[in-house]
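Hi everyone,

Forwarding the result from last night's run.
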Amino acid sequence: MAKLWKPFFSYERGRQLLLFLFCLFLAFITWMIHKLSEEQIVYLQYNLRIKTSLSGRASDALSSEPIIVKGLSTGFYVLSRSYSNAPEEIVIEVNPRLLKRSEVSDKLFYLRTADVREQIADIIAGNVSEVSITTDTVKFEFPRRSSRRVVVVPVINNKVVSGGNSQYNITLTPEFITIFGSYETIGSTDTLYTENIDLAGILQNKSGVIKLRPVKGISYSTTEVYYSVTPSK
């Protein structure tokens, strides 16, 4: 009677079953790697940012909608892109003569993707081959840009220094720089500040190069200035 209650799965059978399942899992992983390594036809979205030199306008702009690129790529690349919430951005330089102004809006311009296909293909060549762009035309907004000269004010030991300082004699070169941006943005900006210059405990002359603090929506003729400091006696 004791033999009737012998377990159906003995230790040996259980071990063989686990080994079989493990081999099956390895086979699946191998198959998956092989499939992801194969090239396949894909359709991918990219945001296109162009840099150009339209007189009196912003120097760069982002496409109003993503471009769609058709090509050959591996499953690994497609899978890696799926973890991003936004399309990857491509940045190219474009001759202003390729941009066509819209009759609808003064700041709206069009670009034919056929004119920049080779540039785009070169940038994504490491991930996508045999590139063609299904989007024919891309829209960009280049608002008119104004400029003005503003004074640069140093920040020393985390304090803004203006109108002279009894502890330090500091000279900035240049003292004034040109800023660029929309009329509204630069109209409210008359001063730029340096990043912090640490002069704690200084006993002798000091000089160097310091970056300027960025201001949203404004670009500078230079992003850094030279400073020279002499401790006051």
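Residues 11-37 form the longest helix (27 residues).

Cheers,
N.
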